[in-house]
Amino acid sequence: MLIVAVLLLVGVKLALDIYTHHGESLTVPSVKHKKVKDAHRILDDMGLVVIVGDTGYVKSLPPDVVLEQSVAPGETVKSGRIIYLTVNALTTPTITLPDIIDNSSLREAMAKLSAMGFKLAMPEFIPGERDWVYGVTVRGRNVVTGDKISIEDSVVIQVGNGLRDITDSINYIDPIYPEIDEEEELDEFELGIPKKEEETTTKTVES
Which pLDDT tens digit goes with each residue over 46-55? Predict the structure, then answer.
């Protein structure tokens, strides 16, 4: 029984060593800036498992190259270890324009766009209510809420400068004056003698 127990313990230990790759260590190489297919081949040949877990974007690098790896180069691991890769995107990422047009002030719009990762250019001031957002342009083209905008493009916010547009129409109403007879106008305004007073003076002279 003692011999059987010893053999059983030795067998279990050997099985665990084989399962956990006891005593085995692999040094993880750097696959950064390599093409994904090359990174797969290098890591697969070492007995490591490769999974593309995320994408990023670096303008100066070609698409489909490794940007980051989950296990640092030089670190020792056992075979079968999963290495997650972050790969450079094939196309330039875009961001959806939020609802800021005619719905926010310049300060609010700039804060929201900056937080989302938009590249902001100098605002364009146009006639309208001061500091109120009236529109957004990209490369001279007007865009609206929901449009996809490249993270490489600069966004120009059109904001009111507090001045009235010269094209704005204002309706003026001419005053209405009562019609005055020409003779009465001469008597009353040019001679300065009221009509009734003139008649009274004439009667006095005749008497």
Answer: 999 999 999 9
